[in-house]
Design goal:
- The strands form seven sheets. Strands 11-14-17-22-19 form a five-stranded antiparallel sheet.
- The longest helix has 21 residues, at 245-265.
- It is built from 13 helices and 23 strands.
- It is globular and about 60 Å long.
- The chain is an alpha+beta fold.
- Helix content is 31%, strand content 25%.
- It folds into three domains: 2-89, Rossmann fold, CATH 3.40.50.20; 119-192, ATP-grasp fold, A domain (Dna Ligase, domain 1, 2-Layer Sandwich), CATH 3.30.1490.20; 198-427, ATP-grasp fold, B domain (D-amino Acid Aminotransferase, Chain A, domain 1, 2-Layer Sandwich), CATH 3.30.470.20.
Length: 428
């Protein structure tokens, strides 16, 4: 079969790497891909959001199956467009992708079906949002935390945790009046600030059956000890030690099954990878966010622990026969350390040469890299590369991931030095 992956990050590299091992795939393509993906798939120079061009290219090149892996094209309806020309996809259609594409939709869904999440209000008017915040701060005191979320996609930057009235009011101005995230800020969700360890659970679902992959923990802030700006993710570990078997069982009962059943009832059956961003609060697990696709960099630790052929799962999801498939995971722990460009998530240089020494048995998943005409590997993005190590125990996985990460260098490279430490503390 000819398979096309759509996307260009570390997540797509991990997906491409594991699909390239599938005996059912003869030719693997990736649009637009990156310097690392080029080692396991043929690159197609089309932007992931240029849906028309992707559909045209896929039709003209006998693509048998497509895997759109990024949020933007999914929310824009790339699955509908590819399926309309007879190309089966792993991924949700436009109606189902709204679970990530609109926070207002997902919050209302959870409220309607009793799925635990932070209490919230929706606003489509800045003056009302500000009046609500003034009343909230008059009641709760000036230093209380509150969370503001732009309705639509905002490149992972649409969530603001305000620690004061002034900050909260300024955020309303930015999102709703200055339209910092464009039309994504037409509506605003203001929600209760929750506390507790966070867990990412990626699942496979065909709309009827839902099978969680190994749980994971992201590290979103740029600096050690969770300081600094929010990023796309600076590292991950799997499994997440906070996510015990009894919590997993509760999440299946209270969150996972009710979510896919709710989507069916809303006539938006979800097929693909449904990502649950959870917070384990003192009142039990609650949904912080849904994503309609694999997480990045969660995928880089979750797929290395998956034993079952990834393409077999993708096909079973598309054909709604997930219940017939046994999905097995490997024992052990995986740690991914992200190497970012100096300055990320702010301004950073690109085009710097990357030197890779002996990284032992580590997996290198490229995110922002490209090959120069002479073959030199160059930096081409904020998050440049992820180094994943899989070992029997977490301490071993941490130390080997860091030893391998030391072997990858470019000018100004930035990485956190404490990926996995929070997970380690939970185990002690
Ligand atoms: P998101 O972009 O939805 O993943 O949100 C980014 C981060 O904001 C999450 O990973 C959480 O750490 C934090 N966050 C989102 N919603 C809440 C909430 N209601 N309470 C506390 N933290 C939150
Ligand atoms: N790592 C978080 C995400 O993919 O949204």
């Amino acid at each position: 079969m000819n398979v096309l992956i759509i996307g260009s990050g570390g997540r797509e590299h991990a997906i491409a790497y594991y699909l390239s091992k599938s005996p059912a795939i003869q030719k693997l393509y990736c649009a637009p891909g990156n310097g690392g993906i080029a080692e396991c798939a043929a690159l197609v120079p089309i932007k992931a959001t240029d849906i028309e061009a992707i559909v045209q290219w896929a039709s003209a090149n006998s693509i048998d199956f497509a895997v759109p892996a990024m949020d933007d094209p999914l929310v824009m309806g790339i699955v509908d467009a590819l399926e309309a020309v007879g190309i089966p996809c792993f991924g949700p259609d436009k109606k189902a992708a709204a679970i990530e594409g609109s926070k207002v939709f997902s919050k209302n869904l959870m409220k309607k079906y009793g799925i635990p999440t932070a209490a919230y209000e929706v606003f489509d008017n800045a003056a009302q949002a500000k009046a609500y915040l003034r009343a909230f701060y008059a009641k709760s005191g000036k230093g209380a935390g509150i969370v503001l979320k732009a309705d639509g996609l905002a490149a992972g930057k649409g969530v603001l945790i305000a620690q004061s009235e002034a900050e909260a009011l300024a955020a309303v101005t930015e999102i709703m009046e200055d339209k910092k995230f464009g039309a994504s800020g037409n509506q605003l969700v203001i929600e209760e600030f929750l506390t507790g360890p966070e867990v990412s659970v990626l699942t496979f679902t065909d709309g009827k059956t839902i099978v969680p992959m190994v749980s994971s923990m992201d590290h979103k802030r740029a600096m050690d000890n969770d300081q600094g700006l929010n990023t796309g993710g600076m590292g991950t570990v799997a499994p997440n030690p906070y996510y015990t078997d009894s919590i997993a069982e509760r999440c299946m009962r209270e969150i996972f099954l009710p979510t896919i059943q709710a989507m069916v009832k809303e006539d938006r059956p979800f097929k693909g990878c449904l990502y649950f961003g959870l917070m384990l609060t003192p009142d039990g697990p609650k949904v912080i966010e849904y994503n309609c696709r694999f997480g990045d960099p969660e995928t880089q630790v979750v797929l290395p622990l998956l034993e079952t052929d990834l393409f077999e799962i993708f096909r079973a999801v598309r054909e709604e026969r997930l219940a017939e498939l046994e999905i097995r995971n490997k024992a052990g722990c995986a740690v991914c350390v992200i190497l970012a460009s100096g300055g990320y998530p702010g301004k950073y240089p690109t085009g710097l040469p990357i030197a890779i020494g002996d990284t032992g048995g580590a997996l290198l998943f490229h995110a922002g890299t490209k090959r120069a005409a002479d073959g030199t590997l160059l930096t081409a993005g904020g998050r440049v590369l992820g180094v994943t190590s899989v070992c029997p125990t977490l301490p071993e996985a941490i130390s080997t991931a860091y030893a391998s990460a030391e072997q990858v260098t470019f000018e100004g490279v930035h990485k956190r030095t404490d990926i996995g430490q929070r997970a380690l503390a939970a185990l002690i």
